[in-house]
Amino acid sequence: MPKQVISTKNAPAAVGAYSQGIIANGFVFTAGQIPLIPGTSNLREGGIQAQTRQSLTNIKGVLEAAGSSLDKVVKTTVFLADIKDFAEFNAVYAEFFKADPPARSTIQAGGLPVGALVEIEAVALLE
Q1: Among 78, 58, 76, 53, which Cα is nearest to 124's?
Q2: What are the structural domain ranges in the chain?
Q3: 4-125 in CATH: which number?
Q4: Distances (CA, A) of 39 to 8, 12, 91, 92, 112
Q5: pTM for the complete prediction?
Q6: Which residue, 18, 23, 24, is CA-closest to 33?
Q7: Which pLDDT tens digit goes with each residue over 93-119?
Q8: How far apart are CA 64 and CA 109, in angstroms?
Q9: 28 - beta bridge partners?
């Protein structure tokens, strides 16, 4: 099964040599999503909670374009600019994954693109 590139206007356009998402072997792999507002180059304002919400909304857009959804996510990787934001980040994250949350890794990154406070990538089942 060849890989399939996912592209949607419901998430920020790729700004480099990467795809918003890839379907391969029954999974959807999203690119890391920072809290850019789709159709713009603007970061969501409002701190870590607003930026977490935007990053997860962007992931949702990529997954839905691929024929998947947040409830089919099996693994996320989260990069925080400051691990001290973990509790506030986690409160919003829990709103998106209420039951049976995916496996997750969360690390503090040395720096994120365009000054973002958070970047999140996901792997989800296609069916």
Answers
A1: 76
A2: 4-125
A3: 3.30.1330.40
A4: 10, 6, 27, 23, 20
A5: 0.96
A6: 18
A7: 999 999 999 999 999 998 999 999 999
A8: 28
A9: 23, 124
